[in-house]
Amino acid sequence: MSVQELVLKQRTEILHALCSSGSAEHLERILDILLAHGDLIWEEYQDIQVLGRALYTKARQLLDLVYTKGVDTSGLFLAALNQVLPEAQRVGLSFSGCCSNLEEKKKYQGTSTQILLTQRPSLVSQLQGCIDGALKALVISGHFTSADCDDVRLPIHTQSQQARRFLDHVRSKGELAAKVVLQFIEQKQESGSQLNEDTVTPPKELFKYQKKLSSSVSAQSCFLSTYGGTSHMSLDDIYTEGQLELSHECVDVHGPLGVEDIVGTVGTVNKEADTVLVSGDAGSGKSTLLQRLHLLWARGAALQDFLLIFPFSCRRLNSEHRELSVQELLFQHCCWPDREQEEIFQFILDHPHLILFTFDGLDELKQSFSDEHRLCCPTQRAPVHILLFNLIQGSLMKGVLKVVTSRPEAVGPVLKKHLRKEVFLKGFSPSGIDYFVRMHHRDPTVAAKVLESLQTNTALLGLCHSPVLCWIVSQCYKELLGCGEGSPQTITDVYLMILQHFFQHQSSQSTLGIGWLQENLETVLHLGQLAFEGIGTSCYIFTGSDLETCGVTEKDICMGFLIQSKDMSSTHSQRYEFLHVTMQCFFSGLYIVLSNDTHRSTIPKLFEQKGMRETDLRSTCFSGCLPSTYQQEQVLEGESTAVETLNLQITATFVSGLLSQRHQSLWIHCCPSAVIEKRAKQVLRCLSKGMQKHFKSIPQPVEGEKKSMHAMPGFVWLIKCIYEMQESRIAKDAMSKLEVDHLKLTYCNIGPVECTALAYVLQHLKNPVGLQLDNNSVGDVGVEQLLPCMHICNSLYLRNNNITDEGIRKLIAKGIQCDNFKKIALFNNQLTDACTQHFSHLLKTKQDFLAIRLGNNNITAEGAKQLAEGLKFNHSLQFLGLWGNKIGDAGAEALASALESTKSLVWLSLVGNGVGSAGACALANIIKNSTSLEELWLTENCVTRTGVECLIQALEHNTHVKSIWLRNNYLSLEEVEEMAQRESRLVF
Ligand code: ADP
Q1: 148-174 b/e with 16+ CB inside 10 Å = b?
Q2: How far, in Å, CA of 19 to CA of 29, rounded?
Q3: Is the pLDDT of residue 285 over 60?
Q4: What's this model's pTM, rounded to 2 decimal places?
Q5: DSSP 537
Q6: 408 CB under 6 A from ligand 1?
């Protein structure tokens, strides 16, 4: 097929690769290359780049043009495409026959204008970061006016777009202007100064402003609130590193990420975007992480590349109802410059790379992210959410880095396309929990006791993986150490514990009596109503009059569940928020359970996550929260936004827990038992209905295939609700209707907390299943939580889950005792040679084990030798996958000797393991003797002709083997051709 036909045939794929990210960068870089080579003339270029035209339209026009220009241009186009697309986007595209001399024509010289054209691709990159200097040179030489400069510097453009715009302007000014540019670049190069490093001399007033801003940021971020207003804990004393991860696609980034990596280049997926998303569940520590970043910056201990940091809380921005410009937003909400506001703002505009914005809790913003309403003028006023969305997508303040936090479920695809990268915050690691508890309890004996009691209650230990729960547990250590048998198991238990603890803290008596809830019922109901109405209206900050409406008194506030809202602008009167959003959900749950006013439709609506405003909210207050008219339509339709759904889910989880049998004694004297029973029945009905809905979605299997269920959103949440009830009867009942062979829960945001609930419920499945948990955050703590359901798993898939050798040790110790357990997949975890002794033990002990897949871990020859020890004694293993490890020849030889006369192994993969001919020759022995092996994968190794000869010889005696894969080894084309002819089962 000619290159021209190739362009035509792949049109859809090329368009997708060029445009799906929403960024014009790839297309523009290709245009640069075509222009430089003269395959596109200037008029054609201008014709494509008409301002305001959609990206897809431009790309289609270019493809039409390239095709009509014929073979040469098509070849060059494909070569340019190959060069500019990131590897992931090239997959599936064919570039065969494309031109390969992209570089040569660049050497062509001519007039200055011509040189600007022929060297355009490199000039675009050279000019980035020194546009200001180049503009100045042209203004001095009289070729550019200030209007030209403004046009180039328009903040909607990326740095590379500014460079292109600059070159286009220069071209229109003629030969002399082009000469000035070339001289400017030459001078920069000669003086040895880095082209992309403008020397910045900030005005004096800026330093004063920086000082004021950093002392205000420091004051805002140095403490964590514990008991509202009455007690504070220094962030330095308690801060514990959370686990930061990049998306599962970034498999080549190893080692833990530090806070500075959030703003660094690691894991970047879209260089042109300015927004980094930190996502994590409620209570995973997102706000605290930002607080830490702010504090480190204010102290000069980190992020020193940024001169100014502007922190925002989306929760607080919700109560800004005025229209503001970016300048007003920065100065009024963060820090007011005492003098020279204009000069300071101009500096910010001129040096975007020195500025950082952070937006905490984007999910709590009332409006969902949209990129429809474009705004690019920093002095134009607009509603705050419009400003925010334009900042995030970069139409406003392009080049300023923005760090945004949100719960992952609330981030839609429209926002994703504007992200530079996404970093996941996964709570504390096991050693993090340890560290936190020790920091929290300065008395080492107390710390040791708390840790000991956590070790004996694995369910609670799993919960402590979430920082907010770790904090609660540490806070309530006295209750925890005193409770023996009744030690908390569920999230509801933990929150009830803190409820009691806070009341105790304020009480004059040394211990609370059994009627503690009844004694504090009024407070619970006042705060409950406030919380409930807030959840229904997405309100998280409450004014004095909101508090009044719900009867919240000074005494209620003193209990510590409410804290005063921090506000950088300090223009607002006193406002309050709950210690944490999960606390608001808990009080909301208490209200639903205990209030006389709970409507009978409330619980069903809660479980269906429908908007709860119309029937349940009688209050006309919540003035700061009620949505503006802009939003009203959406509200009346009763649709919930993503974050409302999440909060309703958390509330429903608490309602399930609070209404479980084991807590019913708490409500005596607080609410008639008939009412409680009725509500509990409602919850059971909702859970059962919810499960049925999921089971109905299971498709009938195609003949010969397994019946499989792919969890729909909400399935894990229902499981968590069932767990909160702690009644095995309910779990059994739910699972009795689930009849599948394979349960797929990939990309479901499953961490240790979810694993506890899953294991509790799934252990009641009637028949064994394959449990697929790939691409979650199970980790070692989660693995431990899963153990109770191991006996029901015939296969366990845990690819991409941050599991280490320690997790494997526990998993295998249990797995050995489980008859059904036959297959395990652990691709891309943190495994080393240390785990192989456990697999070896498994192989020796379980003579019915079928598959071990350990791809993309860190196993070397030593590990392979350990595995071989087990393999020698095993007669059942059919699949062994070690793709992407480092076992080398020595490892291959050990495995080969152990498997020499295997009668069970069907499939062996040693792809990408540094195996050479010595290894291949050893493996040839398996082929000679084995009666079972069908496929051997040796792709991407260093096997030479010698090794392949051994394999060919072995194949002469073997009819079982179907294929040996040898692509990308140390073989010449001629060798490949010749050997493929001799043995058709070799695949090159
Ligand atoms: P999110 O913003 O994800 O909902 P927060 O940052 O508000 O979570 O964390 C909730 C609570 O958990 C904090 O008030 C604090 O007590 C505790 N916490 C969270 N992260 C950390 C951390 N890194 N070190 C110490 N405590 C933390």
Answers
A1: bbebbbebbbbbbbbbbbbbbbbbebe
A2: 13
A3: yes
A4: 0.74
A5: T
A6: no
